[in-house]
């Protein structure tokens, strides 16, 4: 079911460990060329390209890309009461946790009349992507929109693929949740074309370019986000989901198997990795996993994910080696299911989000923990962070010196500008004093 990587009795260097990490199968670079063509097509032909791409890739041609206001209102009115209630409870939790991600402004006084202020400025306009191919993701509307609103973003556009089952409309729950959150600019467009449309804008449908594109998606979406960087900002690539569980023999094998299946359910390219120091426990998980895969609704997709080269069972000597492997893998989701969770947690450096103990499964974070489920994949947790209010904010330093404070530091500027052979820099300071 899961291929085995046996690290027992070995001491790989960092370089060797990184080479062992099973990431190649989900590398988005293979999708870059096809994605570039789709984005160029949208830049050249605008809405017509988006409609043609929808017909080919979503198997439906929407009547228009921009979702009319009446359709959003209808979708809001049509939300089933239990779904509306679940969404409202999720919104409240995500809003509270997102508010804690907004850093306070800081003022540093470096001397009399020498002040640096640091303020956090929201990005002006953002494009939020909500996936909708193999599954639909109303929860991703909340995870994108709420932190953007908490950060104070003024202009928010949202895109989700047109659904063949709904005549080319955005899924009604996605549209309803967007309306519930007060979003009025929604587009029925998916994949790379949607990301290109956000980055470059589309004439005739009111879609102005955005300054940041965020949100999860498949390899095509992730590859498109990689390509548009430089024209617009992104969060992280947030591509096909992965989960890595560190467990010892105190863990519940069936819980672990269920959690691996839960994330493999997203995509054939999803990665499910178990790292354990107990071969007997691993055997138990493999048994439970086989049972769960056979019984689950999307069993073909899940089976493909767990037998894929991106998934693995990693056998280690001890939990120190387990955390070394996890740090090299940089999982999107890390679960720690061991006796001494704090000890393992203290060794973890790289993870998109960390789920501690038997009662914090990844699906809790997917929906209702209050944490954000849009997280870096493909090992990007080694250097990137999950979506948060901070993603939509930029720190800006505001510099305020008075005359005496500038005079005091003038010799420093003169010395350094001379050393760099940029004397006009020093003269811009001395000019202020010489003219007197
Ligand atoms: N990392 C995260 O934070 C996170 C969160 C939620 C979901 N996800 C991931 O999001 C993904 C959702 O994928 P999905 O497919 O359901 O929806 P999606 O919206 O990401 O992808 C659907 C779009 O893919 C494009 N597409 C499909 N086939 C294509 C092809 N052959 N060539 C070019 N483009 C093509 C189409 O434009 C279509 O609209 C999954 O991989 C899931 O694991 C990640
Ligand atoms: N596990 C996904 C993040 O990788 C998020 C999600 C949304 N719905 C279900 N799951
Ligand atoms: Zn999930």
From TrEMBL:
It is an enzyme of class 1 (oxidoreductase). GO terms for molecular function: histidinol dehydrogenase activity; NAD binding; zinc ion binding. Its EC number is 1.1.1.23. The keyword Metal-binding applies. Substrate binds at residues 241, 263, 266, 333, 366, 420, 425. Its cofactor is Zn(2+). Pathway: Amino-acid biosynthesis; L-histidine biosynthesis; L-histidine from 5-phospho-alpha-D-ribose 1-diphosphate: step 9/9. The keyword Zinc applies. Keywords: Amino-acid biosynthesis, Histidine biosynthesis, Metal-binding, NAD, Oxidoreductase, Zinc. GO terms for biological process: L-histidine biosynthetic process. It catalyses: L-histidinol + 2 NAD(+) + H2O = L-histidine + 2 NADH + 3 H(+). Coiled coil: none annotated. It holds the Pfam family Histidinol_dh. The active site is at 332 (proton acceptor), 333 (proton acceptor). PROSITE patterns: HISOL_DEHYDROGENASE (PS00611). GO terms for cellular component: cytosol. Binds 1 zinc ion per subunit. Zn(2+) binds at residues 263, 266, 366, 425. Belongs to the histidinol dehydrogenase family. Catalyzes the sequential NAD-dependent oxidations of L-histidinol to L-histidinaldehyde and then to L-histidine. This is Histidinol dehydrogenase. It comes from Agromyces albus.
């Amino acid at each position: 079911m899961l291929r085995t990587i046996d690290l027992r009795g070995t001491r790989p260097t960092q370089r060797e460990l990184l080479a062992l990490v099973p990431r190649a199968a989900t590398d988005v670079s293979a999708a870059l060329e096809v994605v570039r063509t789709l984005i160029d097509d949208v830049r050249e032909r605008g809405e017509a390209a988006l409609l043609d791409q929808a017909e080919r890739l979503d198997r439906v041609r929407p009547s228009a890309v921009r979702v009319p206001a009446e359709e959003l209102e209808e979708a809001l009115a049509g939300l089933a009461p239990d779904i509306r209630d679940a969404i409202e409870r999720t919104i409240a939790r995500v809003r509270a946790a997102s508010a804690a991600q907004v850093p306070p402004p800081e003022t540093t006084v470096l001397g009399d009349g020498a002040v640096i202020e640091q303020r956090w400025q929201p990005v002006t306009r953002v494009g939020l992507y909500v996936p909708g191919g193999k599954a639909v993701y109303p929860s991703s509307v909340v995870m994108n929109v709420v932190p953007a609103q908490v950060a104070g973003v003024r202009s928010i556009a949202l895109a989700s693929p047109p659904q063949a089952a709904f005549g080319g409309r955005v899924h009604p729950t996605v549209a309803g949740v967007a309306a519930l959150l007060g979003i009025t600019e929604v587009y029925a467009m998916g994949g790379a074309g949607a990301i290109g449309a956000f980055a470059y804008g589309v004439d005739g449908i009111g879609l102005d370019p955005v300054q940041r594109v965020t949100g999860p998606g498949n390899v095509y979406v992730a590859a498109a986000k990689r390509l548009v960087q430089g024209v617009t900002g992104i969060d992280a690539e947030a591509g096909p989901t992965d989960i890595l569980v560190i467990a010892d023999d105190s863990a519940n094998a069936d819980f672990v198997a269920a959690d691996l299946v839960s994330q493999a359910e997203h995509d054939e390219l999803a990665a499910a990795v178990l790292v354990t120091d107990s071969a007997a426990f691993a055997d138990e998980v493999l048994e439970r996993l086989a049972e769960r895969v056979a019984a689950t609704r999307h069993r073909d997709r899940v089976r493909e994910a767990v037998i894929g080269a991106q998934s693995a069972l990693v056998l280690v000597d001890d939990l120190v080696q387990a955390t070394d492997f996890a740090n090299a893998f940089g999982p999107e989701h890390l679960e720690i299911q061991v006796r001494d969770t704090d000890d393992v947690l203290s060794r973890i450096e790289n993870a998109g989000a960390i789920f501690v103990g038997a009662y914090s499964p990844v699906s809790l974070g997917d929906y209702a923990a209050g944490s954000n489920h849009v997280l870096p994949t493909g090992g990007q947790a080694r250097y990137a962070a999950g979506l948060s209010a901070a993603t939509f904010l930029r720190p800006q330093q505001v510099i305020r010196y008075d005359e005496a404070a500038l005079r005091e530091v003038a010799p420093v500027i003169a010395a350094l500008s001379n050393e760099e052979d940029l004397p006009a820099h020093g003269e811009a300071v001395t000019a202020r004093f010489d003219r007197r």
